[in-house]
Amino acid sequence: MANSQHVIDVTAANYDAVVVEGSAAAPVVLDFWAPWCAPCRQLGPALEARAAAAGGKFTLAKINVDENPELAEQFQVSGIPAVYAVKDGKVIDHFVGMLAEAELDDFVAGLNPSAADLELMAAVQLAGSDPAAGKAALREVVAKTPAAEAPRVALASLLVELAESPDEAARLLHGIESGEFADEAERLRRVLKLRETPHADADLTEALADHETAERYLKVGTILAAQGEYEQALETLVTGADLDKKLAGGAIRAAMVEIFHIIGVRSEMADEYRDKLSAKLY
Hints:
With 282 residues, this protein is α/β, with parallel strands linked by helices. The protein has helices spanning 15-21, 38-54, 69-74, 101-109, 115-129, 131-144, 149-162, 166-173, 182-194, 201-208, 214-226, 230-241, 245-263, 268-281; strands at 7-9, 28-33, 59-64, 82-87, 90-96. The chain has 14 helices and 5 strands. A 5-stranded mixed sheet has the order 1-3-2-4-5, with helices on both faces. It is elongated, with a radius of gyration of 25 Å.
């Protein structure tokens, strides 16, 4: 299907016309492939079919890496298939390898966001520079599309970041148990639950004044975690694990696992402190 209306073989000679200039009118999807690449032979037809069905909403640019190494180098392609979406001459999305059909549909859908998507993106961007204005904008988006999960999670995330309106944040997250936003919703719910622990500076000062026991380290670590000081909390909990192996394998371990779920169970910090706790337990 290459060199049809919406699928074009691209080389260095026509790259500027098709990709740089063409992406000013509509997104261009660059498919870096090679004839010897079996996954490429699977992905290529799937992309071509979607380009044809899109009817001009995006152009598919097929780039043979063997024949166009300079273009592959320009995009730092290290493995194929590699797919890059370009709009106004800039990469807006990419992936390497194969995607499931549904994921490929989501990738294509993201090339031309809806008006609601654009409004949400603008609100999130505004929140980065002006949290108060962003919060108001996100509330407007949620009011317009109350069933949509993306704006609800975005607003809840901002409220959690600002440590404001925990009840509102919990309501926003209610019912988001599966799908694209489930993991982030669950992470935010864990943060909200953790913050139910009294964690003002006065609470921390009082806990620090207790006798040096494993229970004291557990209490201090929990308060630090509720304040969002996750690394300091983990270090405190690990220190407490030295003083009471039974508590270390019970409440201290449970507190650390809760933090792991918040910071990412396979994050570098989680891996480090998981190993530290294991060394003390075993």
